[in-house]
Amino acid sequence: MELITLMGMLGTSTGTGSSTTAPGGNSWSFIIMIGVMVAMMFFMNRSQKKKQKEEQEKRDNVQIGDEITTIGGIMGRVVTVKEDSLIIETGADRNKMKIAKWAISQNNTADEKAAAEREAAKAAAEAEKQKRMEEAAENSKAKRKKTKKKDDTFDS
Length: 156
Hints:
- By secondary structure, this protein is α+β, with helices and mostly antiparallel strands.
- The protein has 3 helices and 5 strands, in the order H-H-E-E-E-E-E-H.
């Protein structure tokens, strides 16, 4: 009896026709598990490719005069840009180094510009919000005056 119960838990039958699980019950759970794993892999791969694309765009948009930081932590100003490499100046004595484009970690100049643009957009949005609030306050004052005048005319 214990053998039949154990085999039923494993999803097999004893050949006597008594089965405790529905046929194909385990296969559906396996298919669902595989589907979840495929979806997870798809989304992880998609976000990784998006990040790589952004990094490559940042590297391709390096211009002469930009302040950059390499993956090794070297900071410098771009002097020359070539197809797959660039030359930077570092330090007060302006030492020049040739580095590969893939070694760029950050474009500090572009990051500062982007931060300044975000700050300007935030300030503009805040000013627009303040302007709308002032207009709304003026409109509500005008409505109160109109209703007050109407109430005064009805009282007379």
